[in-house]
Automatic annotation (TrEMBL):
Residues 198-300 form the Pirin C-terminal domain. Gene3D superfamilies: Jelly Rolls (2.60.120.10). Transmembrane segments: none annotated. This is Pirin family protein. It comes from Maribacter chungangensis. Belongs to the pirin family. InterPro entries: Pirin (IPR012093), Pirin_C_dom (IPR008778), Pirin_N_dom (IPR003829), RmlC-like_jellyroll (IPR014710), RmlC_Cupin_sf (IPR011051). Residues 49-136 form the Pirin N-terminal domain. It comes from the Bacteria.
Amino acid sequence: MIKEVFKLGFPWQTQDPFLFCVYHLDNYPKGKEDMTPNADLEGRNLGNDFTLKDGWRMYHGQSIPGFPAHPHRGFETITIVNKGFCDHSDSLGAAGRFGEGDVQWMTAGNGVQHSEMFPLLNTDKDNPLELFQIWLNLPKAKKFVAPHFKMLWHEDIPVVGIQSANIKIIAGTYAAESAPEPAPDSWAAEPENQVAIWNIHIDAGGVCTIPRTAKEVQSTLYFYEGDTIQIDGTTIVPDHGIQLASEKETKITAGSSKAHLLLLRGKPINEPVVKYGPFVMNTEKEIEDAMSEYRLTQFGGWPWRYPDHVHEKEKGRFAKYPDGTLIEKT
């Protein structure tokens, strides 16, 4: 059942069609009224603070944690926010605040800028943040599609309770339950590509079964919280990834505490991948062209006043689409 067990770094190791996966867990303190940390920022390398200090990081944020405006081209970002909130703003004029189980699916396509900031909305208690960001490649035929922004609200994402586990189905199908539709140009939009993104929580001492699929499909399991799990007689501790033999059913048994895992699965695209920072193309020339075009056009420019734009503190969960459509959630 197991091809390889490997230590998780930052970011996590992935397999085609996935390019990148990072896990953020930050125990942010109470916020001030301006949504900044109610804590001393002295000693932090503001603008590039990736060192865990007092249980949290500022990342590229100067006042509010997060990632100010930056470009992407040639792939998709899938952002899963289990705890806390993320404020999205982009060069298309789209915006949103999502969290507490919501997922944002963004196709960068031919080029987009966006920012992802983490407003500290609670002034009377701490503001924990748990977030995954996954980069899913686009095939050559879809590298230059128009950018697309989509929200998968947590109310609409199925959670399957089976055996002693809950499986949240962000992409793919489990036990006849299917995830919401992904972005239309995604590799995940074609069922034959068998893309699956599942967040799995197994009770202490409980069992979860990963069904088998085609041999050529790549399956990677990430064990990020718990004490131990057992697969095929092998005991695995947290902060490890497991490459699975997709053609075999895999039984996972949790140890003495609840086990939290992420599964990424999909048929490889099997095309050349050339990466340079936020651009992922098929050739070096395409990377050079992307850099040149970004310098000239800024992928449409930045319509917001600040590169680290955040929404009003009183705003709830919402999505504003480029065509002006507004969806608000309670």
